[in-house]
Design brief:
The chain has 464 residues and is an alpha+beta fold. The protein has 14 helices and 23 strands. It folds into two domains: 318 residues, BirA Bifunctional Protein, domain 2 (2-Layer Sandwich), CATH 3.30.930; 100 residues, Anticodon-binding domain (Rossmann fold). A hairpin with a 2-residue loop joins strand 1 and strand 2. The longest helix is centred in the first third of the chain and has 21 residues. The two termini are 26 Å apart. The chain binds 5'-O-(N-(L-cysteinyl)-sulfamoyl)adenosine. The site of 5'-O-(N-(L-cysteinyl)-sulfamoyl)adenosine has 19 residues, from strand 8, strand 13, strand 16 and helix 10. Its EC number is 6.1.1.15. Belongs to the class-II aminoacyl-tRNA synthetase family. ProS type 2 subfamily. It is an enzyme of class 6 (ligase). Keywords: Aminoacyl-tRNA synthetase, ATP-binding, Cytoplasm, Ligase, Nucleotide-binding, Protein biosynthesis.
């Protein structure tokens, strides 16, 4: 993309309504614009990152064997009356009437609707296990929407629902979700710690929240620092292997880690003192096992092996897709702006032409731009006729992890400059070598994993 053709409405001033870095930076970098309290339009740069985060979620759900569907945002109140939640949910639920006077609502979550799909189409235990999920807009009329996309009223969420014959199978589904979430967050450059939590209006006994440690987080957390040394990495997991999944869950749930809702001072005191940490965290996901809470009242049963109908065991599993953008920025920024992890960056690198209009600088920048694109990479070329300082400031603000700087002086010696946004370190090298380096950096991030290939050879949506 050429910056002169793009729509990147960056702000010079710090917006006064933004209290935390991620909100400030998302507004300043032209990623979002508030449409109403807690409701945002996603501008091109923000929308691109949202799609990248969403794509990682889809890929990791596919890896775990979960199946994508799409349910509507507007739902009839009738199903919610069946489960008893229409009255229970309270003022967070946005309610409305259609022209016939029928009660409708904007979905805050979708246990009822997915259970209705299940009971209509699944009749036998032989069709289990089944996990359906969607990534869809939700609405919760939060009393205090704040911190931008972090606590919105309209927000984008991945919600998944497992249907299993018995408790053991449902716990395996719970474990499978925990394992797949660990890898999902790591691919976004985040450490998200599973912590025992409280189930709130979703209900159920077993639940873990995933928290990204950050000063500005809304949850108070208590944990054993040993948990922060765990890394999922490139493990190959057989998601059908119950013991393998359970072992990974054990690894992550053995060190003490709880939110204030379930914190237990006596247990915490058993953690060696030098490893006890109290901090704050951003909740970027939550998994629940709630057994037959919805299947029983809604009659979601299957014929068991003995021919008798049994209510299915269920759980639901959420990821705060839009909130994740805020969490990633909270975890990765500096005074100058955002620092995107390679896994979610909106563009793979920036190209800064220091002297637009100079024949050699223009030609070299164009050559780098087209070589990167030919390799299937997605560069942002700042081809504006602007001062170098202004161009650097924009690049630093929008946080592309790598920048190639092209100027007449370097070109006289046959070099351009490759700069890391994270470390600020620069290296001079011939243009072809800079292109090669960018290609190597991103090779592991392509879906195929086999290196950088021309776009046409890659399947972009491996989850479909
Ligand atoms: N039905 C279950 C799981 S599918 C559910 O709704 N879980 S939840 O309430 O925990 O929400 C899932 C995730 O959505 C949360 O972990 C959080 O990351 C995100 N989320 C919840 N409320 C908001 C909000 N107001 N703004 C942005 N993200 C939110």
């Amino acid at each position: 993309m050429r910056l002169t053709r793009y729509f990147l409405p960056v702000l010079k001033e710090t917006p006064s309504e933004a209290q935390i870095a991620s909100h400030r930076l998302m507004l300043r970098a032209g990623m979002i614009k508030q449409a109403a309290a807690g409701i945002y339009s996603w501008l091109p740069l923000g929308f691109k990152v949202l799609r990248k985060v969403e794509n990682i979620v889809h890929e990791e759900q596919a890896r775990a064997g979960h199946i994508p569907i799409q349910m509507p945002v507007l739902q009839s109140a009738d199903l919610w009356r069946e489960s008893g939640r229409y009255d229970d949910y309270g003022e967070e639920m946005l309610r409305m009437k259609d022209r016939h006077g029928r009660d409708m609502l904007y979905t805050p979550t979708a246990e009822e609707l997915v259970t209705d799909i299940f009971r209509a189409h699944v009749g036998s235990y032989k069709d289990l296990p089944l996990t359906l999920y969607q990534i869809q807009w939700k609405f919760r009329d939060e009393i205090r929407p704040r911190f931008g996309v972090m606590r919105g009223r309209e927000f984008y969420m991945k919600d998944g629902y497992n249907f299993d014959l018995d408790y053991e199978s449902a716990i395996h589904a719970y474990n499978r979700h925990m394992v797949s979430y660990l890898r999902t967050y790591e691919r976004m450059g985040l450490q998200a710690i599973p912590m025992r939590a409280d189930s709130g209006p979703i209900g159920g006994d077993d639940t873990h929240e995933f928290l990204v440690l950050a000063e500005t987080g809304e949850s108070e957390v208590f944990y054993d620092s040993a948990i922060t040394t765990l890394e999922f990495g490139e493990r190959e997991v057989d998601f059908d292997d119950r013991d393998a999944c359970a072992a990974i869950v054990k690894e992550w749930t053995t060190p003490y880690a709880r939110t204030d809702e379930t914190h237990d001072e006596t247990l915490f005191a058993q953690v060696p003192q030098e490893r006890q940490r109290r901090s704050r965290g951003i909740e970027v996901g939550q998994i629940f096992y709630f057994g037959t809470k919805y299947s029983e009242p809604m009659g979601a049963t299957v014929q068991g092996p003995d021919g008798k109908p049994v209510p299915v065991h269920m759980g639901s599993h959420g990821i705060g897709v839009s909130r994740l953008l805020g969490a990633i920025i909270e975890a990765s920024h500096d005074d100058k702006g955002i620092i995107w992890p390679e896994g979610v960056t909106p563009f793979h690198c920036g190209i800064v032409n220091l002297k637009q209009g100079d024949e050699e600088a223009d030609a070299a920048s164009e050559a780098i731009y087209s070589s990167l694109k030919a390799l299937g990479l997605d560069p942002l070329y700042d081809d504006r006729d602007e001062r170098a300082g202004g161009k650097f400031a924009t690049m630093d603000l929008i946080g592309l992890p790598w920048r190639i700087t092209v100027g007449p002086r370097g070109l006289k010696n046959g070099v351009v400059e490759l700069t890391s946004r994270r470390t600020g370190e620069s290296e001079e090298m011939p243009p072809e070598q800079a292109v090669e380096r960018i290609a190597q950096i991103y090779a592991p991030h392509f879906s195929s994993g086999s290196g950088v290939e021309p776009m046409a050879n890659r399947s972009f949506h491996t989850w479909l």
